[in-house]
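Lab notebook, design round three. We kept the backbone fixed and only want residue identities now. Task for the bench partner: fill in a sequence for the structure below.
Input structure tokens:
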């Protein structure tokens, strides 16, 4: 029951981790020329690239947290090597710090939480997500699914503030991504810490650099 409730908890935008301040790159993408009608395609593209990498890292972090928590730094290093944009790394660290703080308040004696705080640097969001999932007793698949859902939902929620979008349409985008999310979950749980995919989304990275230097923005990323 704790694992099932934990999955719902991680999918809740009201979780105090600061996720509401992020748009998953939608804001700079729209400034860069993305059309409102292309948002579902943007969600799909993120899931197949950034989403797959981060979901795989979250699943790997969960398994490492349960088996060898002292080696969480290995998963962190592998993910850092696959995140070339400095602003995207910083955004992930902000979200990871929020999750790490929550974990420390709720499970301060859990070996994985202790290891997470022993990294000596802010954990990236997927690493912290995997540790929280381990503390909640979630499966690797559940954590990967939570990571992917959060990515898609972040875009959908941000669209309501950035575009004239009917909330029902934004919800339909999420439902439309369901089969893609499940297919990626299967791929994510089949990879180990040393086998993380290295897919990139060049335009997302470029837009993140532009957004970082923008003086007029609503979202952090």
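Proposed sequence:
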């Amino acid at each position: 029951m704790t694992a099932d409730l934990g999955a719902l908890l991680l999918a809740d935008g009201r979780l105090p981790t600061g996720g509401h301040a992020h748009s998953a790159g939608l804001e700079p993408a729209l400034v860069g020329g993305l059309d409102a009608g292309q948002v579902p395609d943007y969600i799909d593209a993120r899931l197949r690239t950034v989403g797959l990498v981060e979901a795989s890292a979250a699943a790997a972090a969960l398994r490492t947290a349960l088996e060898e928590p002292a080696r969480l730094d290995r998963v962190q290093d592998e993910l850092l090597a696959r995140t070339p944009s400095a602003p995207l790394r910083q955004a992930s660290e902000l979200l990871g710090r929020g999750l790490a703080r929550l974990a420390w308040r709720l499970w301060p004696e859990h070996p994985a939480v202790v290891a997470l705080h022993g990294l000596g640097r802010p954990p990236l969001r997927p690493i912290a997500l995997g540790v929280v999932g381990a503390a909640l007793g979630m499966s690797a698949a559940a954590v990967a699914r939570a990571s992917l859902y959060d990515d898609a939902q972040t875009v959908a929620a941000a669209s309501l503030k950035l575009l004239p979008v009917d909330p029902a349409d934004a919800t339909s985008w999420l439902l439309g991504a369901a089969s893609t999310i499940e297919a990626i979950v299967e791929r994510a749980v089949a990879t180990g810490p040393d086998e993380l995919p290295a897919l990139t989304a060049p335009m997302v990275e470029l837009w993140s650099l532009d957004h970082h230097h923008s003086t007029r923005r609503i979202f952090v990323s």
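Keep this in mind before ordering anything: The mean pLDDT is 91.
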